[in-house]
């Protein structure tokens, strides 16, 4: 045992080392990405690690590995589980041989997500156990036990940390890396692994039969525990439990739910000893629904009577408010101070020198503000600030939504933007479909050669595996052509003139046109030592027209009606091409 | 609100708030104290406003509720005011004197408050303003501004200066140990002079 100051995701990764993990796959997504990132950089245990092209692929890889008897991990964020939902729903039927843990990180308050869905619902839907840690130390120990639970029950286990676990740090006692390595050996058993109807009907019954024992086992393992201290009680799930523990008075009973399915008999017995019960959990009323079913007599407070919100993230103050609404006492008084309102906002923005900004700028210039701009999930969603992001729904939906809009009869140009990683994730299916069905759209693949938003994970376009081993990088050009697209062109977005020309060319043609705007992510470029001279503004020549400022590069400032360039400048030179007065030029040049 | 010392570190993505949080976390480990912290990750790193909650001696969740922080360390004056509602009565703000003007302000022609105005609006608080950029320059690298700010905050934190120094030295890149040790010292001294 040693004491470390760890990020929740690092603690989850470390726990896998102690649990003798042999296989890990995942698709990056905030707040889950650092788990696989930790695993690929650590040096204590050697095993297989991959970044997969999407969550379904990652899931099926890990499932296959678990079928051979080794212990596997697959990580994703909550919305990624939607992509992997297809195999998930049947994985409980087939079960596993080696332990398999599916990390699906939830994001209450949608800090960095398109919705606030609750993975606990998926676990119930798929009839597999779900672990919901209350703090980082528990995330560590639960993750180690998750593998034992998985093997004991023969089921994959969903592990559901929330953003506040994944991206919090605390002192954590961690154990040693395990030294055991298993040998993968797939034993044929069609009755288990081939889900033709005749097998499925049997497997489904078996899965249902496991549920009761599973629920009881989760209480035995201490994941669900309760302490009776009075006539009123609070039941809390996951991280909410730590907020409750901070403010709960000593004479109020407390039950902590850390795992599902909940043993209804056990919970009913606890409920029966109380008159009033408050249920505190984030997002869906999963615990509350069970409690309301089993608590005959006791008055239940929670989301359904407005004490706890359905949306957003809780904190000690909001839990205190829930206590007040339910008429419960709590230990601390919280004031509700008003934040200062009149300050200029500071939203995240595309980096100085980001090639996406230049590509969006040119796109807008050529296609105009009437064109429809379906976009996708990635750094480039920030293109909304340049007016070139009209729709975003989920990974890979830019081309599909775009061809839907175009094929429905929309008369304006439809220009889709999608990143390289997102294109390989699920965008490619949309391109195949659009080409096959003759859509009339322009697709701009914003190719920065990496999955940047989640922290620069490599993808098949990067030419490197998760472990840093060189691998053949995919040819997006060939790939798009083989999807049936004849107009496939590659441009350098830093070359504004060439970029504008190419967009004009695409605008003039009918059908599916693909433009690959390729320029490495500036953060990555900087790390790999690419240096460009910063630009300067000649104050004498600058007319103060403000065009360069509208471009939105954080390296350009505007004071006293003149532009200037600060130290963030990456020297991409695009603003120099934008300036009508020719006031911006590379440093040292005249 | 519990027995913990609740600290907020705020700034702009890229200013090194994560390293600052790690140094405080490591200092807590050195002193064998429990600590909880919560960080902003993901898109907020792209030049957006960032916040790190740290609860020294914290035993429960990592989130600090508005109105309950003991101390705010800010790497930017504008961000100091933005998060000032987190402070509890009698709490303290230690801020760098610099302002990074948000791009949105240039684009939308928003009024950018001057440092004097920002300081004026925080006059109700116990505020210490540090010229971190200048001090970091004197220490040898502008990149050490985050460590300057930690040095400046050391006497307001319930941690020993020795453990913080040790944590700084073990966490910064090996080549920069000397510069950062100096940055920490200079920051510490600057705050002492400021308070007197
Ligand atoms: S050259 Fe211009 S657009 Fe490019 S990073 Fe520098 S200031 Fe920004
Ligand atoms: S675009 Fe050129 S002339 Fe216009 S404000 Fe910028 S530097 Fe000055």
TrEMBL record, chain A:
GO molecular function: 4 iron, 4 sulfur cluster binding; indolepyruvate ferredoxin oxidoreductase activity; metal ion binding; thiamine pyrophosphate binding
SUPFAM superfamilies documented for this protein: Thiamin diphosphate-binding fold (THDP-binding) (SSF52518)
UniProt entry tagged with the keyword Nuclease: no
Keyword Ion transport: no
PROSITE patterns cross-referenced by the UniProt entry: 4FE4S_FER_1, 4FE4S_FER_2
Pfam family, any one: TPP_enzyme_C
Chain ranges of the 4Fe-4S ferredoxin-type domain: 533-560, 561-589
Record field: catalytic activity: indole-3-pyruvate + 2 oxidized [2Fe-2S]-[ferredoxin] + CoA = (indol-3-yl)acetyl-CoA + 2 reduced [2Fe-2S]-[ferredoxin] + CO2 + H(+)
GO biological process, alphabetically ordered: organic acid metabolic process; sulfur compound biosynthetic process
UniProt cofactor(s): [4Fe-4S] cluster
NCBIfam families: IOR_alpha
Role summary: Catalyzes the ferredoxin-dependent oxidative decarboxylation of arylpyruvates.
Protein name stated in the entry: Indolepyruvate oxidoreductase subunit IorA
Organism: Methanoplanus endosymbiosus
From TrEMBL, chain B:
Keywords: Oxidoreductase
Gene3D superfamilies recorded: Pyruvate-ferredoxin oxidoreductase, PFOR, domain III (3.40.920.10)
InterPro entries: IorB_Oxidoreductase, Pyrv/ketoisovalerate_OxRed_cat, Pyrv_flavodox_OxRed_cen
Pfam families per record: POR
Residue ranges annotated for the Pyruvate/ketoisovalerate oxidoreductase catalytic domain, each copy included: 13-188
Molecular function, one GO term: oxidoreductase activity, acting on the aldehyde or oxo group of donors
PANTHER family attached to this UniProt entry: INDOLEPYRUVATE OXIDOREDUCTASE SUBUNIT IORB
Protein name as annotated: Indolepyruvate oxidoreductase subunit beta
